[in-house]
Specification:
Layout (H helix, E strand, L loop, with lengths): L2 H11 L20 E2 L2 E2 L5 E7 L11 E7 L2 E9 L7 E6 L14 E6 L7 E6 L2 E6 L9 E9 L7
């Protein structure tokens, strides 16, 4: 068999390093699969509850329950403000390692008020972490507000 025919036979039966190919059948990649140095499929799960360190503005039981599956993070937030007139942005906490969003622009949402029907709170992320803001200066004291934000992270897997 000539070197050309040998090469053609290998191309039909083996996965090569450099050429484009369509590969049929099921392949079991035990150590993972990467494209351009990024893991494509990660079937790993971890969770972490973080309590706020800002006990000036929030009660000590204000938490974010982070759940990470692969690159997807679900942040379940439950906070209670201490004082009335809760105006302006208040830093709730930093993002823990392993749970930082890819982009802070556009990260945010609304926390529903569990204590009263209204008002609600707004969430925003910046370099200081997770921030909370009341849309009104007459926000009552001791309002429990909850919500969920879903986002992507490229952080290394938390230990």
């Amino acid at each position: 068999m000539t070197p050309l025919r040998t090469s053609q036979q290998i191309d039909k039966k083996a996965v090569t390093l450099a050429s484009n190919q369509t590969v049929g059948g099921i392949k079991n990649f035990k150590d993972g699969l990467m494209v351009a140095d990024t893991s494509v499929v990660v079937d790993r799960y971890i969770e972490k509850t973080v309590v706020t360190t800002n006990t000036t503005d929030f009660s000590a039981d204000s938490t974010v329950y982070f759940q990470r599956w692969g690159r997807i993070v679900i942040a379940n937030i439950s906070i209670t403000n201490k004082a009335a007139n809760f105006a302006g942005w208040k830093v709730l906490m930093q993002f823990p390692d392993g749970y930082k969003p890819n982009r802070r622009t556009g990260w945010g949402g609304t926390l529903t008020n569990n204590t009263n029907r209204a008002p609600s709170l707004s969430l925003y992320a910046n370099d200081f972490g997770i921030n909370v803001m009341s849309p009104t200066s007459d926000f009552p004291a001791s309002q429990n507000c909850v919500g969920t934000i879903v986002y992507f992270t490229s952080d290394v897997w938390p230990s």
